[in-house]
Structures are given as C-alpha cells and as structure tokens.
UniProtKB/TrEMBL annotation:
<keyword id="KW-0285">Flavoprotein</keyword>
<comment type="similarity">
    <text>Belongs to the DNA photolyase family.</text>
</comment>
<dbReference type="GO" id="GO:0006139">
    <property type="term" value="P:nucleobase-containing compound metabolic process"/>
</dbReference>
<comment type="similarity">
    <text>Belongs to the DNA photolyase class-1 family.</text>
</comment>
<keyword id="KW-0157">Chromophore</keyword>
<dbReference type="InterPro" id="IPR014729">
    <property type="entry name" value="Rossmann-like_a/b/a_fold"/>
</dbReference>
<dbReference type="GO" id="GO:0009416">
    <property type="term" value="P:response to light stimulus"/>
</dbReference>
<feature type="binding site">
    <location>
        <position position="278"/>
    </location>
    <ligand>
        <name>FAD</name>
    </ligand>
</feature>
<feature type="binding site">
    <location>
        <position position="229"/>
    </location>
    <ligand>
        <name>FAD</name>
    </ligand>
</feature>
<feature type="site" description="Electron transfer via tryptophanyl radical">
    <location>
        <position position="312"/>
    </location>
</feature>
<dbReference type="GO" id="GO:0071949">
    <property type="term" value="F:FAD binding"/>
</dbReference>
<feature type="binding site">
    <location>
        <begin position="241"/>
        <end position="245"/>
    </location>
    <ligand>
        <name>FAD</name>
    </ligand>
</feature>
<dbReference type="Pfam" id="PF00875">
    <property type="entry name" value="DNA_photolyase"/>
</dbReference>
<dbReference type="InterPro" id="IPR006050">
    <property type="entry name" value="DNA_photolyase_N"/>
</dbReference>
<dbReference type="InterPro" id="IPR005101">
    <property type="entry name" value="Cryptochr/Photolyase_FAD-bd"/>
</dbReference>
<keyword id="KW-0274">FAD</keyword>
<protein>
    <submittedName>
        <fullName>Deoxyribodipyrimidine photo-lyase</fullName>
    </submittedName>
</protein>
Length: 477
C-alpha cells in the first residue's frame, strides 16, 4: 500500500538513536512520513569543528544507527556540506513539508537554526526543534534563580533541578518505520569521517559506538559500580564510573533512559547514596549546557572577566608537547595523557589533575588544554569541555578557588595508592617499587635502575610553580 502521508525530514545531530527520540516521535505524532537525515557540516561549527577522535566515533555511530533504522524498514540519509543548503536541497528532493531537528546549545548551531528557520519559512516549510540531549531546556523559566536570571553556581542550580527531577518514562521505539522515498542516501565514505591511518584501532578495544553499546555499558554500570559510585568514582585504577559520556554526547542514549534504568533497579540505603551522587553528575552536565546557552562567550573567553588581566605564562611549545604526549616526568599526569591517546578518554579525577598541572603549575591558558581535549576525546562536548577547563583553571562559573592547586603527587598517592593506574598506562615505570612510582625524581637511583628512559626531573618544579601561580592569582584580588 502506498504511504500517502506528507514527508518530514528528521534531522538528527546529537540524537543518534531510535529509542526515546522526541524528534522522531514528533514527526510521527504529526502524521508525517519521517525521513531520517544526518548532515556532516564542519563548516557550520564555527571555531569548533568536530575533533579527530570524535569523528572516528561518529563514523561507527552512524553505521550503527543506519543498521537500526534499516531493521525498522527505513534507513539514514547521509549528506555533507553547509547544513542550510543541504537541508533545503533535501526538502526539494523529497517533497518534505516540515523539518524536525534536535536543539543544540552551541552558539554556532543556534545561529544556523535561526537562519534555516527563516529560509524554510519563506518556502512554506516549517522547522520544529526538540530538546533531545538534556533533561531540562536550558532557557526554561523553571531553571532560573528567584530573580529570573541564569544560575552561575552549581549547588542552587542542583537544588532547583532536584525539586523537578524527571520521573516520566522514556519514549518507546517505533516497531516499524516507512521506507525512504526515492532519493540518494549517500554513504559513510562520502562524509570522510574515518581516519586514513588506523591510529584509532585501540579505541575499539574499550568502546562500542552506537545505541547497543551504550545500553550494554549502562547495564554493566547498574549491575556493577553504580551503587558504590560515590565511593569509587575518583579511583582511576578501576571501573567506578559509568563511562556514558561519549554515548550521551552524540545522543546514542538519553539521560532520561539512564534515569529510568537506575529507577528500575533495586538499591539498599547505602547504594542509594551512590545513585544520588551519579544523578548529581548528570546535573553537572545540565549545568554546563545551561551556562553555554546563557553565556556563549565562555566557549573561548574567561567566564570571569577579571581573568583578562591574569598573568598567564608565555606559550611554551616544548612544554606543551611534553604534556600532550605524556612526557612531563610526573607519572599520574603522563599516565592520564597516555590513556587519552590510547582510547580517546580519560578518567575524570585524572582530568582534574592534568588540567591543574597545565593551568596552575605550567600556567598555560586553559584554551590550550581545551583545544587538545577537543581533538583527542571521544566525548568532546563544547559545553562540558569549556566549563570543565574553566572550572579547573579558576576562570569559570562556580570555579575552583584560586588557591586550589592540586598537588599531582599527593593526588596520585591518594587516588592510585598502589600505582596500578600508572603502571597500566606507563609500562616503562612498572618495575618501580613502592611510593617511588608517584614521584620517581625523588629517588634518582631507583629511577636510573628501573626506568632509565623516563625523564629524570619533571618539566616544572611543583613547589616553585605553585607559589608562582598563587602570586599571579593574588595579583587579581
């Protein structure tokens, strides 16, 4: 039987899933024949086009989504180019009378949506955007202070969210979808996302992009680490976190699906503390997006304008190279940077440590770290990346106090006391005994004997650089 429903494009950006997809569901509820579309549009991303690690992930994620859609009778139309021109061309090719898309908070994409809305309206085609990545609309009146202004501090933001924490169930996936109309679907190769050399091979020992991989990882978290999340999330030598960030960023799973899975499990009183700690981290993600929506300058400028006068050190290319490639001579930092290089991800506690060393001890501008993470993280998200780097650098909203300068040695001794994380990612240090693993430069004889190729001293004196950073911060007061 011929499907006589009018066509609507379902433009998926960071909502690469079928389950709990309000964009797809809105098109179906509107009585339309949905045509799922992904447009690779790096030229529309402003100064933040997708980094290399995330493009490698996206290549596999789109393949997984296309397979899922084909299993339901549809498929995924793949195009590349400037999004407005591509969408307008697809409207003409398909005869679509509406376009449904997922709303994004990044300034460049918001500006694109406004231009596209106006262009489509002139042709009598309506554009409808749905929030598919967050639990709350970042501009919602219900997520503002009592004075009606955006939040700048997390704790009252979290209290506000907690009072209206979602309890509704995720949207079910459709049982079938209509076939695509006769138009060129494109291929993944056309998007040129996959690396031309296999530098990403190690990633896929740790990750399975796509919805199935996301739900498998969520199940493992619920059945394993979730109940002790508050106690173990800071320990990098074990799987104590959910590792859901790359799946959440591209929308392979929704935060509402995560909350529903947690709600369906049985927890004792002790475990409930772990679950609440995890939900608080989901709220931090909401906070980052809330901030970027209301303060778009934070993607590249200090949130706190006082820091325009801060005495950052001159760019130091050799030092930055040592930091990027895990050759600082500080084992916990080098282990984190090696983990990042090997699998496109880094444990959050270690992210704080390497960020503190870069922005406080080396006093390099936080953007130097944000740019490197943007290119190397599979979970690179502009809101999270900008907010997190400004937090650790002291320049952001609700930022770490200026005097909070993590000592990487004491952090290493506290959170990786047996050196298991360091030994995993720094095999050249594996033979170092006892506490020497945390600060090998303090025991030069052992370092020369067991790890002669490792730097004999760190790239910076930790005590002296700490005092210099404190002096620079005090100058702003």
């Amino acid at each position: 039987m011929t499907d006589t429903r009018p066509v609507a494009l379902v433009w998926l950006r960071n909502a690469l899933r079928v389950d709990d997809n309000p964009v797809l569901q809105a098109a179906l509820d509107g009585g339309f024949r949905p045509v799922p579309v992904y447009v690779h549009a790096p030229g529309d991303a402003g100064r933040w086009p997708m980094g290399a690690a995330q493009r490698a992930w996206l290549h596999r994620s789109l393949a997984a989504l296309d397979a899922r859609l084909r299993g339901l009778g549809s498929g995924l139309v793949l195009r590349s180019g400037r999004a407005q021109a591509v969408i307008e061309r697809l409207v003409a090719e398909s005869g679509a009378v509406a376009v449904y898309g997922d709303r994004r908070v990044e300034p460049a994409w918001r500006a694109l949506d406004q231009r596209l809305d106006a262009a489509l309206a002139r042709s009598g085609v309506r554009l409808e955007m749905r929030q598919a990545a967050l639990l709350f609309e970042p501009d919602a009146e219900s997520v503002r202070t009592g004075q009606g202004t955006p939040y700048r501090v997390f704790t009252p933001f979290w209290k506000t969210l907690r009072r209206q924490w979602p309890q509704d169930r995720p949207l079910p996936a459709p049982t079938s979808l209509p076939p695509l109309p006769a138009l060129a679907t494109g291929t993944l190769a056309d998007l040129d996302l996959a690396p031309r050399t296999a530098w990403d091979t190690g990633f896929w020992e740790h990750w399975e992009p796509g919805g199935a991989g996301a739900h498998e990882l969520l199940d493992a978290f619920v059945e394993g680490a979730a109940g002790a999340y508050d106690a173990q999330r800071d320990l990098p030598d074990r799987i104590g976190t959910s590792r859901m960030s790359p799946h959440l960023h591209l929308g392979e799973i929704s935060p509402r699906q995560i909350l529903a899975r947690l709600a369906d499990a049985r927890w004792n009183a002790r475990q409930k503390a772990g679950i609440e700690a995890y939900e608080r981290e989901l709220a931090w993600r909401e906070f980052s997006h809330h901030l970027l929506w209301h303060f778009p300058h934070m993607q590249e400028e200090d949130f706190n304008p006082r820091f325009a006068r801060f005495a950052w050190a001159e760019p130091a290319p050799q030092v930055l190279e040592a930091w990027r490639h895990g050759r600082t001579g500080i084992p916990i930092v080098d282990a984190g940077m090696r983990e990042l290089w090997a699998c496109g991800w880094m444990h959050n506690r270690v992210r704080l440590i390497v960020g503190s060393v870069l922005t406080k001890n080396l006093r390099q501008h936080w953007l130097a770290g944000a740019r490197w993470f943007w290119d190397t993280l599979v979970d690179a998200d502009l809101a999270n990346n900008s907010q997190n780097w400004q937090w650790i650098g002291g320049t952001g909203a609700d930022a770490a106090p200026y005097f909070r300068i993590f000592n990487p040695v004491t952090q290493s001794e506290r959170f990786d006391p047996h050196g298991r994380y360091i030994r995993q990612w720094m095999p050249e240090l594996a033979a170092l005994p006892g506490k020497a693993i945390h600060a090998p430069w303090t025991q030069p004889a052992l370092l020369a004997r067991y790890a002669p190729a490792y730097p004999k001293t760190p790239v910076v004196d930790l005590a002296e650089s700490r005092e210099a950073a404190l002096d620079a911060f005090r100058a702003l007061r």
